[in-house]
């Protein structure tokens, strides 16, 4: 059954016989949001945000499901499934001719084409058919939703197009000699739009043709006063020429001719040079809305805020720069925005591709100024040879006029500066792979990759939504490979559309991360690699030494797979000082070859990283590539060791790598929390570094990286990340017969097992480590290992062996003068006495340990000791003392963001509350522990919490 959906007025659904009611505000907003993106996938998050205006209640998920089901049922009653669930949201199927906005836009397009051809009968017929679809203000029954950012932009687009169609209809009326018939409606519309110049121009002509010349001249003077008072500008070229024609007695100016006499007899023109928009342009609603507001503000339209400029004073020129990496969609967005604001610039729109990154070199401002002057009809007979003189002529030609200048693909600010118009109602929109932040008064709009739902919607428009829905796993792989880059998605979508028999899985396999992936992202003459070439070659072949240095940095950065850097690690990789590395990175950020998500952190887009690696393989000698990798691995091994020492305060660390540290400075940490946070941020890079060290035969670096994570693991052991790194390093150490590495890895693997309460495996690795260190005669290492064995025996309920090993550990520490291990050994003795039931003695040891740790400012160890002391005090019946110690421990864990340690503290506190009969507090603590366990997938805490809750009355 054919439906008719109406947005041009109150929201309606008609089945050909009667209106089908869609009741309920939320359901109507849901339908409206889907109709604004017909046949496209709209994310569930975006739909819910529209329905609740960004204020989601806790029940929003369930309520949304009910509204979606109800709407699906209403639409399915017409005989076909209309509302479909498509990851990551929903899709409303609308056939051609069913949605009034699409029919209106098609009719308007036909009217515009006929207007350009001067076919006035067709203009009138198409305009009348288009305007007949309007029933009032779009979505007038949903004012709150209509005023949201994206719907507001869409409503503005429709209103502007409606006004344009009415202007074409009036122009056709004049062309057909119907000036008397249109005069009344035209007068009303011009009064409603006092700054709309074309309406007033048409009204002047209609009045003049009906013999009302004085009124025609008054329309001009009233318009001029309004423009000067409101915008500080004179009427545009078309209005001025019509006024002159009427003054000289030419009562029938050609419709839409828009010409006036320029300097030296040259005829001024109103050019419109914006390229055709991309048919499948998708997403970027927020960015397009922002561009429209900025450009309208320049033209004195709705985007201009009160007080932006003094009355009568020209608005300061604020060029708008859309920047981003190659293939991110800058030009498509700029063209889309320029077309939306066409009506705000009645004196013309100039466009030029500056070719800032093309192989043939950038176009010169000198030549472009000559072209612009000619396009505007302001080129004098003798054009000056000096660029500054041409720029002055251009500014004079544009002064007081509302012209939009779109400068695409600019190389740098120097190329753009001579082309800028003067202060006033004109606007400049620039796209560039560089930020161009040095342009005076610039408004910056850097583009990021498309959001997930926008990527799905774009691919669906290119090759069909049904096709991509059938293979969700392959779709996820393709999206991951394209990295949100519109160019890559268009290539992929085009290849799929031209190969209907291909399954998505085939293309997903070809796009899997590999050295040849960029070759697969090509279709005909369009390739992602060629786009990247333009940005890279511009700095590699630059005459500027800093840019050439940045090109080298870019190549070497691509060799590091995670593509994430701090200044220190990048300096190590590049073999330069931190200052030089920072300068190169910032230059790459300005060139949109590197992204800086936060101060001091830098990343490469995955595809750019692959491209950079390919360039390094082509242009960097093998020996330099190897040296660069070793420099970075060495830096990370030493940095991780420094973080581990700060986080664990361990009594013995692995011996450092041979040789003094001569590279960039290592990170410095004021406390264990800071060291743990740094390690967590760098963990993906550290994992890659372990594997890379193994592949180049540097087992000495690989095992130091893995064992250095001990301090981080004291709070994040439960994630399993440390276990994986240790296993990987052990495989490397065994393969290279690295005895020292195996000794330290056994020691650390034992600790990982102990933290997870895998007692037998822990003891197995401790015994292996003890054998290695006994053979080496390392007494301090033996003291630590024996102490760890004591902890395992206490944990597995063997108190006598726990006490024996704790006391032996203490004696070994004394023999080795390992004073830093004294607190740890005393803590082991306290734990053993606790298990033996000697709680008073245990508390005495715990108090001594806590005092020592407060002096050492060791947060993790202090929290553990306070927790254990609280348990001992609980056994002694000291409720207040027990809870005070455990509350302090809980605060330390939470401040450090230690989820596992926080859950431990909550479990201890729950047992303390239960011991003293406070069941409500015990339940609260267990529930908080359970919530943490579920959130972070900590099986032991989930099980313990559920058991604890089940035991409560």
Q: Any overview of this molecule?
A:
With 953 residues, this protein is α/β, with parallel strands linked by helices. Among the domains are: 4-98, Arc Repressor Mutant, subunit A (Orthogonal Bundle), CATH 1.10.10.10; 177-253, Alpha Horseshoe (Serine Threonine Protein Phosphatase 5, Tetratricopeptide repeat), CATH 1.25.40.10; 285-303 and 315-446, P-loop containing nucleotide triphosphate hydrolases (Rossmann fold), CATH 3.40.50; 452-512; 530-620, Arc Repressor Mutant, subunit A, CATH 1.10.10.10; 859-951, Alpha Horseshoe (Serine Threonine Protein Phosphatase 5, Tetratricopeptide repeat). The chain is 61% helix and 6% strand. The chain contains 43 helices and 17 strands. The strands form six sheets. The protein has a five-stranded parallel beta sheet with strand order 9-10-11-8-12, with helices on both faces. It is elongated, with a radius of gyration of 36 Å. Residues 251-267 and 305-313 have low confidence and may be disordered.
């Amino acid at each position: 059954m054919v439906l008719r959906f109406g947005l041009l007025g109150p929201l309606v659904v008609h089945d050909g016989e009667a209106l089908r009611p869609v009741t309920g505000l939320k359901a109507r907003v849901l339908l409206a949001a889907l109709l604004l993106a017909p046949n496209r996938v709209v994310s569930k998050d975006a739909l819910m945000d529209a329905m609740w205006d960004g204020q989601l209640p806790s029940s929003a998920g369930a309520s949304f499901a009910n509204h979606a089901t109800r709407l699906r049922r209403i639409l399915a009653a017409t005989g076909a499934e209309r509302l479909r669930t498509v990851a990551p949201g929903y899709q409303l199927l609308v056939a051609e001719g069913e949605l009034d906005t699409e029919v209106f836009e098609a009719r308007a397009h036909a009217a515009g084409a006929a207007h350009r051809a001067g076919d006035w009968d067709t203009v009138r017929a198409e305009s009348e058919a288009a305007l007949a679809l309007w029933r009032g203000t779009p979505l007038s029954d949903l004012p709150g939703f209509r005023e949201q950012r994206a719907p507001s932009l869409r409503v503005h687009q429709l209103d502007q197009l409606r006004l344009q169609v009415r202007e074409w209809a009036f122009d056709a009326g004049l062309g057909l000699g119907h000036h008397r018939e249109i005069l009344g409606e035209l007068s009303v519309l011009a009064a409603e739009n006092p700054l709309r110049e074309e309406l007033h121009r048409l009204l002047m002509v209609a009045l003049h043709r009906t013999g009302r010349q004085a009124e025609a001249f008054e329309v001009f003077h009233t318009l001029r006063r309004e423009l000067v008072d409101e915008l500080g500008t004179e009427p545009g070229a078309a209005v001025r020429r019509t006024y002159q024609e009427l003054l000289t007695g030419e009562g029938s100016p050609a419709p839409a001719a828009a010409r006036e006499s320029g300097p030296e007899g040259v005829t001024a023109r109103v050019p419109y040079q914006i390229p055709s928009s991309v048919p499948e342009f998708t997403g970027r609603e927020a960015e397009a809305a922002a561009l429209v507001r900025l450009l309208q503000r320049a033209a004195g339209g709705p985007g201009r805020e009160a007080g932006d400029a003094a009355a009568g004073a020209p608005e300061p020129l604020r060029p708008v720069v859309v920047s981003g990496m190659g293939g991110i969609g800058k030009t498509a967005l700029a063209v889309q925005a320029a077309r939306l604001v066409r009506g705000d610039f009645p004196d013309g729109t100039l466009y030029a591709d500056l070719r800032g990154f093309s192989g043939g070199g950038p176009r010169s401002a000198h030549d472009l100024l000559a072209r612009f002057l000619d396009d505007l009809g302001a080129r004098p007979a003798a054009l000056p040879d000096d660029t500054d003189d041409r720029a002055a002529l251009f500014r004079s030609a544009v002064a007081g006029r509302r012209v939009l200048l779109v400068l695409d693909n600019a190389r740098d600010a120097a190329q753009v500066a001579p082309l800028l118009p003067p202060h006033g109602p004109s606007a400049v929109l620039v796209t560039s792979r560089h930020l161009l932040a040095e342009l005076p008064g610039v408004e910056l709009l850097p583009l990021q990759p498309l959001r997930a739902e926008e990527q799905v919607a774009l691919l669906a428009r290119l090759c069909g939504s049904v096709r991509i829905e059938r293979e969700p796993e392959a779709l996820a792989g393709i999206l991951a490979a394209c990295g949100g880059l519109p160019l890559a998605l268009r290539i992929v979508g085009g290849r799929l559309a031209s190969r209907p028999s291909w399954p998505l899985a085939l293309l997903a396999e070809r796009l899997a991360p590999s050295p040849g992936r960029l070759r697969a992202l090509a279709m005909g003459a369009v390739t992602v690699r060629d786009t990247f070439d333009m940005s890279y070659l511009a700095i590699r072949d630059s005459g500027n030494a800093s840019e050439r240095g940045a090109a080298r940095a870019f190549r070497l950065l691509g060799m590091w797979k995670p593509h994430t850097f701090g200044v220190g690690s990048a300096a190590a990789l590049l073999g330069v000082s931190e200052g030089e590395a920072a300068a190169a990175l910032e230059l790459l950020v300005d060139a949109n070859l590197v992204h800086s998500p936060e101060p001091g952190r830098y990343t490469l887009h995955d595809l750019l990283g692959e491209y950079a690696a390919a360039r390094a393989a082509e242009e960097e000698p093998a020996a330099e590539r190897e040296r660069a990798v070793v420099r970075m691995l060495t830096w990370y091994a030493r940095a991780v060791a420094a973080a581990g020492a700060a986080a664990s305060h361990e009594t013995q660390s692995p011996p450092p790598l041979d040789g003094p540290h001569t590279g960039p400075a290592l990170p410095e940490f004021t406390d264990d929390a800071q060291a743990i946070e740094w390690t967590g941020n760098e963990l993906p890079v550290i994992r890659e570094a372990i594997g890379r060290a193994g592949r180049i035969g540097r087992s000495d670096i690989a095992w130091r990286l893995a064992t250095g994570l001990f301090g981080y693991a004291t709070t994040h052991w439960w994630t399993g990340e440390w276990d994986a790194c240790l296993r990987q390093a052990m495989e490397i150490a065994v393969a290279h017969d690295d005895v020292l590495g195996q000794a330290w890895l056994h020691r650390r693997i034992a600790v990982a097992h102990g933290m997870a309460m895998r007692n037998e495996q822990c003891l197995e690795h401790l015994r292996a480590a003890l054998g290695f260190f006994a053979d080496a005669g390392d007494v301090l290492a033996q003291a630590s290992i024996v102490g760890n064995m004591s902890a395992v025996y206490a944990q597995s309920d063997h108190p006598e062996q726990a006490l024996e090993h704790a006391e032996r550990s203490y004696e070994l520490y004394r023999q080795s003068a390992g004073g830093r291990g004294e607190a740890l050994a005393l803590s082991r003795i306290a734990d053993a006495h606790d298990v033996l039931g000697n709680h008073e003695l245990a508390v005495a040891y715990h108090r001594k340990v806590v005092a020592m740790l407060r002096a050492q400012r060791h947060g993790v160890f202090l929290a553990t000791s306070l927790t254990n002391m609280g348990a001992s005090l609980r056994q002694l019946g000291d409720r207040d003392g027990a809870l005070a110690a455990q509350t302090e421990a809980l605060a330390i864990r939470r401040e450090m963001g230690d989820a596992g340690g926080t859950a431990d503290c909550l479990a201890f506190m729950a047992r303390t509350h239960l011991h003293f009969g406070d069941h409500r507090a015990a339940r609260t603590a267990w529930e908080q522990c359970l919530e943490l366990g579920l959130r972070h997938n900590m099986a032991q805490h989930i099980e313990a919490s559920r058991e604890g809750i089940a035991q409560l009355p």
